[in-house]
Amino acid sequence: MIVRKVVTSLIIIGLAAEVWSHLDIETEDFYFPLEPVINYCAFADQCLHDFVVICGQDNLGITRMFVDICDLNEYNCDEKKQYRHVVMDVCKYELVTAPPPQVG
Asked: Which positions carry the signal peptide feature in this UniProt record (predicted)?
């Protein structure tokens, strides 16, 4: 029983060491944990606007609304920011509704 646990542990450690040896992680290449730097300018150049409003958040937790994912990519490219698409609930306080029409 102990031999089986030791052998299993050694196999797991060996596999983990093999995987880790193939990872070349540098801090400047990552802005969110384990996410590579994205070339937003290339995405912005190839993107077609669909005008589906999205919420974006940067690595400091600052949120803002974008017209669509293309707008997010263009903003990141132009302003050298790193906003990423997050669920709309994160931007719920930024949603502004139109005032009701005034009658009369």
From this structure: 1-21
